[in-house]
Amino acid sequence: MLKRKTQNHNENTRTDLRYRSYKYSVYIIKFLERLPNSRLYWVISDQLLRSATSIGANIMEAKSASSKKDFARFYDIALKSANETKYWICLLRDTTNTDKEYLKQLLNESEGLSKMLGASLLTMRNKR
How many domains, in total, are found in the chain? Predict the structure, then answer.
């Protein structure tokens, strides 16, 4: 499941964020594969897939940003995607009979990614 290793002092926070966001996308995809094949799940799962995978995609895109402002913009988009992802997970949790425990873990990881992104943005903007 979604077990997190404690951050090693030698690891770069940005690298850890890239790794975690990638693994999170993998967990989301594996979860969505298990959902029933019905119209209700198609719409929600499509939105969840887009928002969850957008987190990591924007973090990776930031890697080749042309300026600090551009870099921060990609992190800002990733943060918005993480917040949107929380919405779709909560909607599934509260309206369907899916695996509530796994959804809770996905929600916790989304919250963790949001906090890391938010802290990084504050640091970039010298507001810490």
Answer: 1
Range of 55's domain? 41-124
User: Residue 9 domain-assigned?
Assistant: no
| Residue 20 forms part of a structural domain | no
What stretch of H or E contains 85? helix 68-95
Report the CATH number that the domain containing residue 115 is assigned in CATH: 1.20.1440.60
Q: Which long-range contacts link 17-23 to residues 24+ away (Cβ below 8 Å)?
A: 17/59, 17/113, 17/116, 17/117, 17/120, 18/56, 18/59, 18/60, 18/63, 20/109, 20/112, 20/113, 20/116, 21/55, 21/56, 21/59, 21/78, 21/113, 22/56
126 vs 53, higher pLDDT = 53
User: Average pLDDT, whole number, for the chain?
Assistant: 89
- Residue 40 has a pLDDT of 84
pLDDT band at 10 (very low <50, low <70, confident <90, very high): very low
Largest distance between two CA atoms of the chain? 47
pLDDT of 2 > 80? The answer is: no
